[in-house]
Amino acid sequence: LQVLTAPLQVLFPYLPSQSGVGLASHCTQFPTLRGLKTRAVAASDGIGNRRKMASSRVRLGLVFAALASAASANAAHTGRQLLASHRYKLNDHVDLFANKAGPFTNPAETYQYYDLPFCRPGGADGKLKHKREGLGEVVDGNRQIHTPYDLAFRVDRDHTILCTKELNQKELAKFRMAVERDYYFNMFYDDLPIWGFIGKLETVQKPTGTEKRYFLFTHVHFEVHYNADRIIEINVSTDPSQTVDISPDVASKTEGQLIPAEFTYSVTWKESTIPFEKRMDKYRKYQFLPQHLEIHWFSIINSCVTVLLLTGFLATILMRVLKNDFMRFQRDDEADDQEETGWKYIHGDVFRFPPHKNLFCALVGTGFQLLTLAIAIFALACVGNFAPYNRGSLFTALIVLYAATAGIAGYVAASYYKQMEGSNWVRNLLTTCFVYCGPFFLTFCFNNTVAWIYQSTAALPVGTIIVILLIWGIITVPLTVFGGIAGKNHHGEFAAPVRTNKYPREIPELPWYRGAVPQMIMAGFLPFSAL
Fold first, then answer.
1. Which of 71, 278, 316, 427 is buried most deeply by CB count within 10 Å?
2. Nearest to residue 77, comparing CAs of 134, 149, 153, 156?
3. Would the pTM count as exceeding 0.85?
């Protein structure tokens, strides 16, 4: 386990851990993982090839389970570490970080906060200082930057001037675009997220027609709740009475086409009785951004149970009807072929090895890996590992677990490939490594390039891309190879339930509407139309 997690220890400064503890060291902190290691060593003591084969599979599975448990434990430990250190004294400085901004109607479109001409720390030419974030946070599009706001612990402020600016035409155009598209901003204070709007758009009726008026909010009010020496809640609001009219006709009437704007803020502290451990509960119940997806658990469970029951009834009926046919097909009686009709004509060709067995086995192995990944993610979600304070933990778990389960893809692909009498198992492993990552990487490159062009926070930095590629090259590829070697050496025999003809039966030419493309269109039309 330490050998497999050594690359993660090298890259661990990029992973979401504020404590600096390596992934392998987390494994030694939990009795469950120590028990897994002890049982894995005990399972290796056996006599005979079959027992060795079983013990090797058990050890491989335990390694994957330990890696998954360590990844989830690391995320949970990080959250607990963050929550345990949030204690302040009177007048202590607490940083307010600006994260991102974007249109309220499209939460997936986000940009950096200081892409808009707000008051920057250190003045107009001040250098922006970014907060160091974890891998999952960067993938999630978070870009936290220090702000000049002074929100000292339990210190009230009334109408404090942040800065005074003369907005030029370029800056006014950016603000007008943000107001027209209903931009919101996102900040973090003591790891608590807050949201607010940048301005408002009003439509004025005039004799000559309608006219749009753009107003920029210049004052924000922070209301912070505390319990003893900890921050419990923070809310931000804007004052509609303190705005600046940035409409085009206003700028044209001023000298130099500049509009003065004074940005101010105020802070009010209030005592709260909510315990610190429950301060994140409101974020589980309420969301600022619009939710386009509402999960109906009862409908999902009802549909799954209905599908399982219908599948079971259908399988039972088919097995009773076809049981005698299967027994007859297992006999080498060629005289019965003349009496066959319908699907029975091809019973001897159903289990024939596919012509592209290399690609087929690679897809099957990758499917097993993705299924294992989905089950692991659902299990971690059920135990509450993806809490609101663990920002980016879902993406971190996806990356780490995908790398950790690569051995499953290699094992399944190589095992099936050897059962189908494949000889070039090295090419099969290379296909397994690239059959999913290759198209996914090409799609990512296109999307990331578009995000770079528009300077969106959805674009991953070059350093993050290099880290992900290193994780894939140092962990995913070797685990795929190790799993492939284990599958090649411990594969079983392919046992078809019916005999396979020596020569494939000739299939007559089908009409056009029974081709692959028309059948796919017709098969997908009904479920697509139901959406």
1. 71
2. 134
3. no
